[in-house]
Write a structure and sequence with these properties.
It comes from Pedobacter frigoris. The protein is of the alpha/beta class and about 240 residues long. It has eight helices and seven strands; from the N terminus they run ααβαβαβαβαβααββ. The two termini are about 30 Å apart. Bound molecules: S-adenosylmethionine. S-adenosylmethionine binds next to helix 3.
């Protein structure tokens, strides 16, 4: 199973590097910062190709084994990650269902009905439609979660107050953890640890605050994932 689809629309759009970016990356290599800037990926600005590769393999590890449960995403927006998840589910001919949770109220630069955008994106990509759970997490989860969860992506940051965001992520973790089955995976978008990741921009510091607090009395450990200029991490349920 190849994963070149991750670089092409609608999953990504990796273009050849411009001479300007090659120049900037030469500078970054000189400074030994350990990462470079990829060409702007216009169709997938919510994640990097490195992150998509991480999603593909971690979800693949769950789909290839006997991990029980469905696939969920808390914070799906227009479905960039969600389409990748559904594509992986179908490539693996898995019978797992994708459940998506979002208020669909945050617009970023998009205008109009975000939920309709997501459905349209899935249709254009000729993917089976996911189960949508519209509303604030506080209203939809844990009640509307599947009984068992094999793979979860928490991606509910949109700037704003870090303590408020921490509370939301903590609420998500507390809701999903009891339903995560042994060996299941939870990926946390924007988990940034300067010690692990080096120099970077911590766009949603509430994620690490919530995750560290949540895991401190649990057997699971957080594992960083290389995501180039974006950051994320995961834990696997013991
Ligand atoms: C960064 S976006 C998600 C990006 C998405 N994973 C993708 O691949 O395009 C964050 C999303 O979280 C949602 N969100 C944040 N807090 C929420 C809450 N308390 N309840 C429901 N949705 C929430 C926002 O509506 C927004 O769509």
């Amino acid at each position: 199973m190849d994963n070149y689809f991750l670089t092409k629309p609608p999953y990504g759009n990796i273009k050849a590097s411009s001479s300007f970016l090659r120049f900037v990356n030469k500078g970054l290599r000189f400074l030994k910062l350990g990462y470079n800037i990829a060409p702007i990926d216009t169709s997938a600005d919510m994640n990097t190709v490195e992150q998509r590769i991480n999603y593909f393999h971690l979800l693949g590890s769950v789909l290839n084994s006997e991990i029980q449960g469905d696939v969920i995403e808390l914070g799906c927006f227009t479905g960039q990650c969600a389409m990748l998840f559904q594509k992986a589910i179908q490539l693996h001919q898995s019978d797992k269902t994708l459940h998506l949770y979002d208020s669909f109220e945050v617009k970023f630069k998009e205008k109009g009905d975000i939920q309709a955008f997501l459905i349209d994106n899935f249709k254009k990509a000729q993917l089976d439609l996911p189960v949508l759970h519209k509303g604030y997490f506080q209203d939809t989860i844990p009640g509307q979660l599947p009984e068992q969860i094999a793979f979860a992506h928490i991606d509910c940051g949109f700037g704003g107050d870090k303590m408020q965001h921490k509370d939301i992520v903590l609420y998500c973790l507390n809701s999903i953890y009891p339903r995560m089955t042994k060996g299941s995976v939870c990926i946390l978008m924007d988990y940034y640890d300067p010690e692990m990741n080096g120099i970077g921009i911590d766009i949603n510091p509430g994620v690490k605050l919530a995750c560290d607090e949540f895991l401190k009395d649990k057997p699971e450990k957080i594992n960083g994932l290389y995501g180039n200029q974006y950051f994320h991490a995961y834990f696997r349920k013991a």
